[in-house]
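To illustrate the input format used throughout this study, we show a single complete record. The first block contains the structure-token representation of the backbone; no residue identities are included at this stage. The design step must infer an amino acid for every position from geometry alone.
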């Protein structure tokens, strides 16, 4: 059987950190973790995604940035600090395999392009040239120690896009884990008691879904599972995405919660499913998430591809679209906190009362 060609280590030298052996370390760890989940199918979707990301990361000289992010996360976890990725870092399959993020983009249909960029045509040279932007939410108790660790790492001063942010939700999860002895990562996202709390009962104190606006969206959209709440997170964080847009489509029965646009990634994926070239789908996604609307040429292309009118009109209204990986990360954190409220209400109340 012919094997898929693997990435090669380039001689690229750019204005980025250069850790000896970073490319080899990145590939070895990623491939080992990959084989745990997907075995050795060189023609599968997961394998193709892995090697596409390898090529972009290594050719553009970004391997050391990934390794620095991995070591930072590993250190935080080894010290017992809750840490989570934010932004679009969860768009990278390699970042997931390295343990930088808990989000597997293949499970949530998140394209790498949202994190890494996309070339505009087939002859422009290297792809995925956007510098990796790793942002982390960290429990407040560990922020000072983790920043110190990061600053002492070789070439850390050359890393231009890593942020370590203190975060109340991660702090609460740390305290709840200590109070109950429950490993936060063991919490399942299909727990019926947690879903019932978020859908039907008192979600006060739960980030994302306890707020007044989110409760209105939940009541109107009628979510039933985790993926629905990811949609709601995107709808709540976008601008002109829910109000007088998705809300009307759902209310009228024109579209379901899973049909409407809630995150930028969904636009690119949907258009590619409709036959759009990757570059055009990416450009439309970027224009929409930046509030630039649709050009006449793209509207024509969408109509020729039988994109429904309601979808096109929805696109025209959008001012800003949230990244799906960020929505997934926020929803994971909210579900974990809601799980504690549902199963350990006294411990949850004690932690919230100290906020």
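Output of the design step:
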């Amino acid at each position: 059987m012919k094997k898929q060609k693997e990435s090669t280590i380039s001689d690229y030298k750019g204005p980025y950190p250069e850790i000896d052996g970073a490319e080899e370390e990145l590939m070895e760890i990623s491939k080992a973790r990959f084989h745990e989940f997907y075995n050795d199918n060189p023609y599968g979707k997961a394998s193709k995604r892995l090697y596409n990301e390898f090529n972009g990361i290594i050719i553009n000289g970004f391997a050391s940035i990934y390794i620095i992010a991995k070591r930072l996360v590993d250190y935080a976890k080894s010290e017992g600090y809750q840490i989570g990725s934010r932004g679009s870092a969860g768009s990278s399959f390699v970042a997931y395999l390295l343990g930088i993020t808990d989000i597997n983009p293949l499970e949530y249909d998140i394209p790498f392009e949202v994190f890494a960029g996309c070339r505009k045509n087939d002859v422009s040279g290297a792809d995925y040239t956007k510098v990796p932007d790793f942002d982390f939410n960290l429990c407040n108790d560990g922020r000072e120690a983790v920043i110190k660790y990061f600053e002492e790492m070789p070439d850390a001063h050359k890393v231009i896009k890593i942020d370590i942010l203190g975060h109340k939700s991660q702090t609460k999860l740390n305290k709840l884990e200590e109070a109950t002895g429950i490993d936060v990562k063991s919490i399942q996202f299909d727990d019926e008691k947690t879903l019932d709390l978020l859908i039907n009962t008192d979600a006060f104190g739960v980030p994302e879904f306890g707020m007044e606006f989110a409760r209105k969206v939940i009541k109107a959209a009628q979510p039933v599972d985790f993926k629905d709440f990811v949609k709601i997170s995107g709808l709540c964080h976008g601008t002109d995405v829910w109000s007088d847009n998705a809300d009307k489509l759902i209310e009228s029965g024109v579209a379901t919660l899973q049909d409407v646009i809630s995150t930028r990634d969904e636009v690119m994926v949907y258009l590619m499913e409709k036959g759009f070239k990757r570059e055009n789908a990416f450009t439309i996604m970027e224009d929409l998430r930046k509030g630039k609307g649709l050009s006449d040429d793209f509207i024509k292309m969408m109509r020729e591809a039988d994109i429904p009118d309601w979808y096109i009109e929805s696109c025209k209204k959008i001012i800003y679209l949230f990244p799906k990986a960020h929505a997934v990360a926020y929803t994971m954190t909210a579900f974990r906190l809601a799980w504690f409220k549902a199963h350990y209400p006294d411990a949850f109340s004690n932690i919230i009362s100290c906020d």
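Structural context for interpreting the output: The beta strands are 83-86, 134-138, 162-166. Residues 1-12 have pLDDT under 50 and may be disordered.
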